[in-house]
Design goal:
With 216 residues, this protein is mostly beta strands. It has strands spanning 2-3, 7-16, 20-28, 33-44, 46-62, 65-77, 82-88, 96-109, 114-126, 130-131, 136-141, 145-150, 160-163, 168-184, 191-197, 207-215. The strands form two sheets. Strands 1, 3, 4, 6, 7, 11, 12, 13, 15 and 16 form a ten-stranded antiparallel β-sheet that branches. Strands 2, 5, 8, 9, 10 and 14 form a six-stranded antiparallel β-sheet that branches. A hairpin with a 4-residue loop joins strand 8 (96-109) and strand 9 (114-126). The relative contact order is 0.34.
Length: 216
Amino acid sequence: MIPISHMEYNRGGAHTAPGVLKYCSEGKLSANTGWVCMGSSVQGTSGYARGWTDLIGKVSTKLAGIHSYYEVGAINVSAGFLRVSGHCAPGAFGSYARVYLFWHVWVYDVNLSAYVDQGNSGFIWDSGYAYCGTTGWIRASSPSMVKSFNSSSYYGGAPSFRFVTGHVYEFTLFMGCTTEVSVSSGSSTPSIFGSFCNSPTAPSSNSLSIYGLAIV
């Protein structure tokens, strides 16, 4: 395994009022371990919010020929780290909430000044789209996850790529959360929806680690 050279943070998203994105905090516990915290919410008869926050690790190396590669790290989060809830007003049956924990590995060819592979990604845990089916509450939350992480154990194994002799490749390794809510209603009664990653009261107690990149 090639260890990451340093760790960064990344965040982004979009919202339509009265949708709100709120980033609670982010921080490091060590050179390869940190936390992120955010939420998306809507209170009204219509609105949208979707955002993401993640840790990023960097690895740079030269490779030649066909190799498989995958991200290596760890997850240490309590039950309910990811959660959605919504109170569906009458007529809000197209409204939904979703939250998921994801990883990406992007490959940048320094010689070509271009990304050559951005397809290595997936969901570690996904609530799925929690839709309003009837008037009332919808809820979903993640279980406790305390485990090592190896992206090759998802979706049938690590991807392979043909690397060009003499080229330098920079790998960007991501691990983080996406929260999303959407409310649409034919009623004047507001719906209340929320999608959350981590607890704003003690976010550093739930950590994510990116150790490095394994190449086969």
